[in-house]
Write a structure and sequence with these properties.
By secondary structure, the chain is α/β, with parallel strands linked by helices. It contains 14 helices and eleven strands. The structure holds pyridoxal-5'-phosphate (PLP). Pyridoxal-5'-phosphate (PLP) binds next to helix 3.
Length: about 350
């Protein structure tokens, strides 16, 4: 449903506002000083999150960026490289954090859909040791810059096994892993099994106002908790926000609704603007439209959307990302179609 002020905001799944159940949970959450492990709500959130992806332990962090970067910091030494798809969020859209904070560079794989094949790992490792050493391989699932594509489970399993044969650690940026679970029916622990650490966000499709989590073995998470302190991420009575994250996590199965709405949006766009999108490419909640097929200049579209109280980000290099989430519904999608007609 649109926001109470009538705004339909399709910019991102990060724009959601806390639900009444989240606000109620936040208001009544038992809290304590989390740096002393004294916050019962955070402790529960960490246990529930670890178990949701089949890991021993978890540590709550303020953002997905911090979760990814602490994981990179843990798994690598300065001067090493991280093997990643070239279009990874943790390489491209985290303001150079890995280079600045961990002193690493990236060995990139340039494939569609965020994919990395086993032979890419072999190729990279053939020269490692002479070229800079590779300390870590990373995945991102679902893959943001590829329009929310799911990296197929079997591919992740095979490539991760190859990476492990080469002695590489593996981190998954699972900011939207629950979208991958909703799209494939493959459960959290299966995705957890093919990675050593996994980061996921409560503040995207799950709808909580803030927070992410890193999950892994107990030893690894103890060390990442120490690094969180170093980076100023130790938080105190943070159960007030962890309470909303617990609600979002418990309701994660509702993400299929966002995917159904994204399909409707894609099918409607394809009918109205031939060539703008192939609905088959829309696997989750991110819809990538070829803006040129709409046949209007961006300024015209922007003005129409503004007067209809609709927000969508401008196209980037011709690709127009429209995102569904728990605060938009079918009537908002109809309003978007009517505005573009
Ligand atoms: C795939 C992916 N990873 C990580 C992040 C970073 O999350 P945060 O904005 O909480 O730092 C994002 C944010 O959009 C993302 O899309």
């Amino acid at each position: 449903m649109a926001f109470p002020d009538g705004l339909a905001d399709f910019r991102s799944d990060t724009v959601t506002r806390p639900t009444p159940a989240m606000i109620e949970a936040m208001a009544s959450a038992p809290v304590g000083d989390d740096v002393y492990h004294d916050d019962p709500t955070v402790n529960l959130l960490e246990e529930e999150s670890a178990s949701a992806v089949g890991k021993e332990a978890a540590v709550y962090v303020p953002t997905g960026t911090m979760g990814n970067q602490l994981s990179i910091m843990f798994h690598t030494n300065p001067g090493e490289e991280v093997l990643a798809n070239a279009a990874s969020h943790l390489r491209s859209i985290e303001a150079g954090a890995a280079q600045a904070l961990s002193g690493v560079a990236f060995r990139t794989v340039d494939r569609e859909g965020g994919q990395i094949l086993p032979e890419d790992v072999d190729d990279a490792m053939e020269v490692a040791g002479f070229f800079p050493r590779i300390g870590l391989m990373t995945w991102e699932n679902t893959h943001n810059l590829s329009g929310g594509r799911v990296i197929p489970y079997d591919l992740m399993k095979t490539t991760s096994a190859r990476a492990r044969e080469h002695g590489l650690a593996i981190h998954l940026d699972g900011a939207r892993i629950w979208n991958a679970v909703a799209a494939t029916g493959i459960d959290g622990p299966s995705w957890g099994e093919v990675t050593d650490t996994i980061q996921f966000c409560f503040s995207k499709g799950l709808g909580a106002p803030i927070g992410s989590i890193v999950c892994g073995s107990r030893d690894v998470i103890d060390e990442i908790r120490y690094l969180r302190e170093r980076m100023g991420g130790g938080m105190r009575q943070v159960g007030v926000i962890a309470a909303a994250a617990r609600v979002g996590l418990a309701e994660r199965e509702r993400l299929v609704e966002d995917h159904q709405l994204a399909q409707k949006l894609a099918v409607g766009m394809a009918e109205r603007f031939p060539g703008s999108i192939d609905p088959v490419d829309v696997e989750t909640n991110l819809v990538r439209i070829d803006f040129a097929a709409i046949g209007l200049p961006w300024e015209e579209v922007r003005d129409r959307l503004t007067s209809a109280a609709i927000k969508v980000n401008p196209p980037i290099r011709g690709g127009w990302r429209v995102c569904t989430h728990r605060d938009v519904d079918e009537s908002d999608v109809e309003r978007l179609f009517a505005t573009l007609a």
